[in-house]
Amino acid sequence: MGYQKGVNAYKNSQILTASPKKIIDLLLEGAVKQIKLAQLALDQDNFEAVNIHLIKAQDIILELKLSVDTTVEGDIPNQLIEMYEFMFSRLVTANMEKDLELMELVIQMLEEFRETWQQL
Question: How many CA within 13 A on the CB side of residue 71?
């Protein structure tokens, strides 16, 4: 088995055996990674790669939004949905305008949320 196949098998195993809490953590981590890759691509004027990475980050945030349990009472589900919608829209704008500041804003939001999530 080649190195990359081993890495992929490990990642698949990690996801398949993860708790729901860990899956959310992995998604948050993945969104941050994709945005940082988009920032690197933008520094290199590789606009195609910027687009690809930001769309991946948008897809992750959409998945996070769709995973919110709306049957839970209280304001938290709606606040989470609004937060994800805000991040999603900022990434769409960042992609269209190739805006590093908007990308950084979403990274900060995701990292703060991830820190909070890990403390639960």
Answer: 0
